[in-house]
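User: Small ask, check this?
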Amino acid sequence: MITKIPTKHPVVFLTIDDGVVKSPESVRLLAENDYPATLFLTSNTVRDNPAFFKAFMAQGSLVENHTVSHNVNMTTQWGYQRQLDDITGMQDFAVQQYGRKPTLFRPPGGSYSTAMRQAVAAAGLKAIVTWEAKANAGRMDYQYGNSLRPGDIVLMHFRPEFAADFAAFRSAQIAAGLEVVLLEDFLGVA
């Protein structure tokens, strides 16, 4: 379980979830600012245009596992095997579409259970990743404090308000004097 990276290095990790809205603006914003991101994608939301996310990969971002279905209640509604099937389904999709087996997992909605932890391990993933800060509705929300700190994992989504969320994140990142680096590189699991 990773919610924050304990480090004194002035770094922050940008993660972007789901893949519902596929706007060229999101690709452009990350490219213009040279920000790599960890993309926790859900195959059901990206299946209509999986190639869209290859532009992020070309810029240094990586695709990780956010399940096939994005069932936010999977830990309470589903047993181990169904959770494993949903997680391994995304593993297979990612290999097929992006040529890389994900190493990190983000549970839909952030909830996890013992069964999910076992399913994640059985699927060959190295860690479950949550967050301590998020860019949402054009502002930053923090679980602790009121600014970004070294090692924070920031959550964003591919939504219509991506540009406003990105601007909020960038402003907070610059104000905190942190460099955006790829989570997988820092963890050595790329």
The CA atoms of residues 125 and 174 lie 32 Å apart.
